[in-house]
From TrEMBL:
Residues 3-115 form the Response regulatory domain. Residues 143-208 form the HTH luxR-type domain. It comes from the Bacteria. Signal peptide: none annotated. It holds the Pfam family GerE. This is DNA-binding NarL/FixJ family response regulator. The keyword Iron does not apply. InterPro entries: CheY-like_superfamily, NreC/VraR/RcsB-like_REC, Sig_transdc_resp-reg_C-effctor, Sig_transdc_resp-reg_receiver, Tscrpt_reg_LuxR_C, WalR-like. The modification 4-aspartylphosphate is found at D54.
């Protein structure tokens, strides 16, 4: 059973999500909150697997709350995909973001995907966000140094992930098994202290490995 928490200041929206998720045999809504601060208080005493977090709320917003969430996966809810708040939330550790008018089936699938440990933010959409907000991403020398710990193949996989390629596409380009790509990506995440593919994309831009024109430096 996947335990879900709804965090949104709009009670009607929470009711809609609760109705959709309540119809799923393997998902249970175990808690709700109207802002980030209340959500963090509830998380101290409630076991939650996935948090559906509105990005814009009075008081503590979803970005700040996401920074303090430890354990549960966070899915950010936003009204439009090129949202600097949603982008900031992914940087803060969210597993991805969903539009508030997401079809019910996509909402359910997204919760299951992040619960399984993957990211639901579309790498291509995130890349568009990074291009748009590139001015907020000065090259971070320590991050670039951390990338130096990667093997040439791990660095290759990182750059392909950052360009939005799936494991299957990377495997085809490198002419290796998809399981091999997963192994390389797992080592990249471990070495760089990253949670998922979404953070790999952000890391690549912040470290200066990928620039808005999508060309690697050097």
């Amino acid at each position: 059973m996947i335990r879900v928490m709804l965090v949104d200041d709009q009670e009607l929206l929470r009711a809609g999500f609760r109705m959709v998720l309540g119809a799923q045999p393997d998902i249970e809504v175990v808690a709700e909150a109207g802002d980030g601060a209340a959500a963090l208080e509830i998380l101290k005493t409630t076991e939650v697997d996935v948090v559906l977090m509105d990005v814009r709320m009075p008081g503590m917003d979803g970005v700040e709350a996401t920074r303090h969430v430890e354990g549960p996966k966070v899915l950010i809810l936003t009204t439009f995909d090129l949202d600097e708040y949603a982008f900031a939330a992914v940087k803060a550790g969210a597993a991805g973001f969903l539009l508030k008018d997401v079809p019910p089936a996509d909402l359910v699938n997204a919760i299951k995907v992040v619960h399984a440990g993957d990211s639901v933010v579309s790498p291509t959409t995130l890349r568009r966000m990074l291009d748009r907000f590139a001015a907020q991403l000065p090259t971070d020398a320590p991050l670039a140094s951390a990338a130096g710990e990667l093997t040439p193949r791990e660095r290759e996989v990182l750059l392909m992930v950052a360009r939005g390629l799936s494991n299957m596409e990377i495997a085809a380009r490198l002419e290796v098994a998809e399981a091999t790509v997963k192994t390389h990506l797992g080592r990249v995440l471990a070495k760089l202290g990253l949670r998922d593919r979404a953070q790999v994309v952000v890391f690549a831009y912040e470290a200066g490995l990928v620039v808005p024109s999508h060309r690697p430096k050097g």
